[in-house]
Amino acid sequence: MALLFFISVSKKIQTYLTENNITPRKDAGPGVWLTFLLPLSIILGELTNKNTSHTYKTVACISCGLFVHTIIFLAQVNKNIFFSATTLIIPCSLSALMLFYLTNEGVLLSILYGISAIAAYHASIFPLMKLFPRNFTYGESTVTAQSLVLFLISSFIRNPLGSASCMDTSTIIVQFGILWVMGIGAAAYHFNWKRKPKPFYSSVLLTMIFILLLPLYFLIGESPITWILSLIIKDNTLQILVCYWSICSLLGVLTIYLQIKKGNKATTVVRKTFHLLTVLVFAPGIILRPCFLFLASGVIFGIFIAIDMLRILQIPPLGSILQTGYIKFADEKDEGPLALTPLYLLVGCSLPLWIHPDPERSELLPLISGLLSVGIGDTAASACGSLVGKNKWPGSKKTKEGSAACFLSQLFLVIALIHFGYIPRTNLIKPTFAIALVSIVEAKTDQIDNLAMPLLMYVMTIWKWKY
Fold it and tell me: pTM above the 0.85 mark?
């Protein structure tokens, strides 16, 4: 019954996109099921962790509204109704009531946050697909819109003043940095700075000083650069990690340089080397210094957005070089204006760190859900499928041998982590079931697996099962 409902809704969304001249990503369905995963991840994070922060509670309340909005919206779409007051009134009211009773924000702020968040999400799904044609399916667009709304809400709501932890300060730095990059991007789009380096670079310099660095100085009590350097100087383990990460980064740059020099388009195997490099970077960071990895991954995310901005705007001297590299490494999913494949790889591995309420005190399994599913499982599936895969799944390019490699590689890593004491010696039913489900999704889905698999794995591993 549920399957028939999703098939019906998917067909009607596809028809709506066609009728409104919205071009989704090619050779992929709407991916309606993706819409539920991010709000569910946040809600489970709140329910399974005690003493979550004020900001996280606020985001969880908004996520409840987004989850209910999805249910109502899809039910309405099934009746060929794409816009109705009910779709907004119920989730807005729910979020506002939850904010009022659970966060003590007050009546006016609760109503404001509830209405603005749900309305902004509702209003941005299809325009996002229209602004960036061929970049998103419906499901991918909803996850992007949800992420944007939740990020903006969390950026404007501060935890009560107290002793600032490493995670609190890192969060402030990352939020300000990404907001600054997004602001530059919005200004470049509005003023049409394509191939105009002078206004672009002058705006970057001025806003970096007065909108990014100065506010951060007053918020954290010192320059963010000196704060980061002091973290590294005081911690010998972190110094070793930073040197190690620098070597991994140089290897990545060298791989890109050699591929451009060859003049050939990168094969799937070459692209998967970046998955392996991501595993090498994230694994020790998550285990040893999750806070600094949270900070570093957020900063790199902002840098990736800035690099793609330079490429799209063709700003010299890097614009043409970046476009050449993009052409060499783009795969069949990169047909739109945005270069999302590298961004999705980073997001897929980082997302558990970003959305977990307390990554420094978390069990390891939820935090490595992205690394496990994308860095290990997806890489093993691709490598094995390319090298020895012969038996394809019906209606798919994926092979059964690749799926077996996806499942076994993740399971072996979990068993190894249990053996070395990084994961508690508990029942293997939970991780095995989660890995099996993710392996099936990897084989069957036409959505971006770097986005879908980590979210699904995170939901399955953070959920407190009783068996």
Answer: yes
